Amino acid sequence: MNYSGKTSLPRDLFTLYGRQPVLEALQNPAIQPYKLHLAESNRSGGSLDDILKLADNRQVPQAFHTRLALSRISRNGKQDQGVALDIRMPNLQNIDKLCNEPLPSARMRFLALDQITNPQNVGMILRSAAAGGVDGVIIPKQGCARLDSLVIKASAGTFFRTPIYVCDNLPNTLKKLASNGMQICLMAADAKQTLFAHQTNQSCIFVLGNETDGVSKDIRTLPHTA
Description:
Layout: E1 13-17, H1 19-27, E2 32-39, H2 47-57, E3 62-65, H3 67-74, E4 83-88, E5 92-93, H4 95-100, E6 109-113, H5 119-132, E7 136-140, H6 149-154, E8 164-167, H7 170-179, E9 183-187, E10 204-208, H8 217-220
Parallel strand pairs: 2-3, 5-8, 6-7, 6-10, 7-8, 9-10
Antiparallel strand pairs: 1-4, 2-4
Helix pairs in contact: 1-2
């Protein structure tokens, strides 16, 4: 990812952190590890030895860092447990390209997650999105459950197949996508029209809100179709 001192990383990298998530990723042959990052202060034993053994067996490059440097890689020094793993995700898409480049002539459908805080729910939504044939799922870094082993497990493998667009801020991203010709559609239990009845010639972003409060106020104020 975009950590300090790295300027030529592949675009499709995703960083997992924490000993159990990293261990499970290395145990999964479907996941392509890119580099293992370790704190110099780590003590040997337990799951760390298992991680190192798996990394050696899979010939994963390893790098050692100070705790501060590792926290810049994991972006969560309080929970990374001295371990982070870069993995390749060919399905990780470029949100800036979607916002700024001309859209394909064919109508596209996207699902955007607004403050979905339960990682199991995020994983199950990815499963549904894959089954429904959507063109991508937009997940903000702010306000949603972080993409971790719980999401991966709940997705039943679709985490690595579904096109995923990660953005910094969902309201700002939706504004840009609307300016690029997409229609914003809010999903709600009391909506007058069903998802399947919605007819439009535009590409659409269907926004799914929080488990309790629904779509957030910042997004409800944007021009939209309910």
